[in-house]
From TrEMBL, chain A:
This is NADH-quinone oxidoreductase subunit H. The lineage of its organism: Bacteria, Pseudomonadati, Bacteroidota, Sphingobacteriia, Sphingobacteriales. NDH-1 shuttles electrons from NADH, via FMN and iron-sulfur (Fe-S) centers, to quinones in the respiratory chain. The immediate electron acceptor for the enzyme in this species is believed to be ubiquinone. Couples the redox reaction to proton translocation (for every two electrons transferred, four hydrogen ions are translocated across the cytoplasmic membrane), and thus conserves the redox energy in a proton gradient. This subunit may bind ubiquinone. It holds the Pfam family NADHdh. The gene is nuoH. Belongs to the complex I subunit 1 family. NDH-1 is composed of 14 different subunits. Subunits NuoA, H, J, K, L, M, N constitute the membrane sector of the complex. It comes from Mucilaginibacter corticis. The keyword Nucleus does not apply.
UniProtKB/TrEMBL annotation, chain B:
Its EC number is 7.1.1.-. Belongs to the complex I subunit 6 family. It comes from the Bacteria. This is NADH-quinone oxidoreductase subunit J. The lineage of its organism: Bacteria, Pseudomonadati, Bacteroidota, Sphingobacteriia, Sphingobacteriales. NDH-1 shuttles electrons from NADH, via FMN and iron-sulfur (Fe-S) centers, to quinones in the respiratory chain. Couples the redox reaction to proton translocation (for every two electrons transferred, four hydrogen ions are translocated across the cytoplasmic membrane), and thus conserves the redox energy in a proton gradient. It comes from Mucilaginibacter corticis.
Amino acid sequence: MELADIIVKFILVVIIFAISLVVAMYSTYAERKLAAFFQDRVGPNRAGPWGILQPLADGGKMFLKEEIIPTNASGFLFIVGPSLAIMTACIGSAVIPWGQKLVIGAHVIDLQVADINVGILYIFGVVSLGVYGIMIGGWASNNKYSLLGAIRAASQNISYEISMGLSIIALLLVTGTLSLREIAEQQHGWHWNVLYQPVGFILFLICAFAETNRSPFDLPECETELVGGYHTEYSSMKLGFYLFAEYINMFISSAVMVTLYWGAYNYPFMDTVAASVGPNAAVILGVVLMFAKIFLFIFFFMWVRWTIPRFRYDQLMDLGWKTLIPLAIANIVVTGIVITLINR
Amino acid sequence: MNTFYFIAFLSVFFSILVISAKNPVHSILYLILTFFTFTIHYILLNAQFLAIVNFIVYMGAILVLFLYTLMLMNLNKDSEQPKSSLVKIAAVIGGGCFLITIIAAVKALAPSDYVVLKDTNLGLVKNLGKTLFNEYLLPFEVSSVLLLSAMVGAVLLATKDPKATA
């Protein structure tokens, strides 16, 4: 790899990192504004015009708050918990293709950090690692509510990972590759995978809600039963990291859903557009549209949160094991049969 | 090669910490790190699929379950039963026998040359899948039946006996 390529990759990593953080920051603002809208309130409107500086004010507050580590907590792991949560949230974006290749002079810039040929499985690995942040933090707090929250998070995560994996298998039957770049390329124009895998997409969406611990599956931090759940004992920026990790996870899982099912950076008539305004402009339009789709999904996450009440824990497990897994298996069987019939 | 020695050192180091840690939860956390070093070994061998599956299945699922059970049991020094000296003696003898077996096995092992793979891309998903489903189809399917029976057995153990509850 040439030095220029390494520098370009480095810049790309920094940009993606910055974008994830900014999106996560403004998701907190959007969440509060949307909640206000759904509940017929005004929402945050004091810091800057329309309260637009609110996330900065919140961040500043988080940094300046008193750092409290409970006496009986195991000190090192208490800090490892939120660090792991934010780290696993940030590394997921490495394999997502954000756009087609830009061509500037003789340079080809790949708008994807790493095109590894097991891209989907990498995302899965990161997702399955994400639960450790919550578990370690919840256990290290030495508080029964935190521990209950951590245990809930672990069992919920594992249960929904199974149906998530099964829904992906049906998608893999259609695409025949594990690389996210190739999956994105196959959906050129309007051949979006959601048209071929509607059931798989809905299963994946439900599992994404459970994996990111978003309402209606936010049982690990259910405040009516568990005070604050796994982050009961946390204060200051360590709490901030947990909350922030949730928003980054939401962003990344939206990006994954867009890449896998909603055509990534592809849009109808993209060849016509590319022919009329030039290839690079079309690529940038694709990136913009990809982000528009991602923001629609983030809006959907929030919409659901402020509309649907929380599940009971046994209902959550029933849904995961007795509804989603059989549905996902049926989806695989039907997809397999249809593909065999078509290819014959 | 240096990377390999460094990672191998880390594997051994973390596995020693697994058995020497006083707190069972810390033990599991070291075990997670050990498995992570295994994942790096697989990547060094260019076995991407094995690496990522080791990562997902062992680190992401099995060890989460281990941690989960340990947290539920809430083991600590106060609740630990003092072990009788008979158990301690038996453990020492058992461990000693195991050590002798391992040393004998290692000594009997003829030092082999490096195995050079004909196809270094064997570990990639496509090649691995083709090999599994062409050359090793029967063992592959048989092991899947084994897993299925284990799953059915686990469900059977977990369900309540209707006669016992009635």
